[in-house]
């Protein structure tokens, strides 16, 4: 069974794409909070929603899924 494509809850919006990309880059909740200026509760809620929508077990699978579907690539890696 094919997994759905990685789609933020608000497709096409800068916020939705940014939120998906920071999760896909393997950022911690604290790093996402700082980068997007959101509360930790908001970040936790969004991460949980993305994992549920895509039927993924954890953040590692979200990163793998994002790479496999072209949301992020080598150029998105830090350093």
Report on the structure:
The longest helix is centred in the middle third of the chain and has 14 residues, at 40-53. The relative contact order is 0.20. The chain is mainly α and 79 residues long. It has four helices and no strands. It starts with 13 loop residues before the first helix and ends in an 11-residue tail after the last helix. The protein has a single domain (14-72), classed as Winged helix-like DNA-binding domain superfamily/Winged helix DNA-binding domain (Arc Repressor Mutant, subunit A), CATH 1.10.10.10. Mean pLDDT is 76; it is low at 1-12. The chain has helices spanning 14-24, 29-36, 40-53, 59-68. Helices cover 54% and strands 0% of the residues. Helix 1 crosses helix 4 (59-68) and helix 2 packs across helix 3 (40-53).
Q: Which features would summarize this protein structure in a list?
A:
79 residues, mainly alpha, Arc Repressor Mutant, subunit A
CATH architecture: Orthogonal Bundle
> What number of domains?
1
| Quaternary organisation | single chain
* pLDDT averaged over residues: 76
> How can the largest sheet be summarized?
none
CATH superfamily: Winged helix-like DNA-binding domain superfamily/Winged helix DNA-binding domain
Rg, nearest Å: 12 Å
Kindly provide the name of the CATH class.
Answer: Mainly Alpha
**Uncertain ranges:** 1-12
Separate helix tally: 4
CATH-derived topology: Arc Repressor Mutant, subunit A
> Into which percentage range does the β-strand content fall?
under 5%
Give the helix/strand class: mainly alpha
Shape: globular
* SSE pattern: HHHH
Strand segment count: 0
């Amino acid at each position: 069974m094919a997994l759905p494509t990685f789609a933020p809850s608000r497709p096409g919006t800068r916020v939705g794409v940014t939120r998906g990309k920071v999760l896909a880059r393997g950022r911690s909740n604290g790093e996402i909070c700082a980068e997007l200026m959101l509360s930790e509760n908001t970040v936790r809620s969004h991460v949980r929603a993305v994992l549920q929508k895509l039927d993924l077990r954890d953040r590692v699978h979200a990163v793998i899924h994002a790479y496999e579907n072209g949301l992020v690539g080598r150029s998105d890696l830090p350093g």
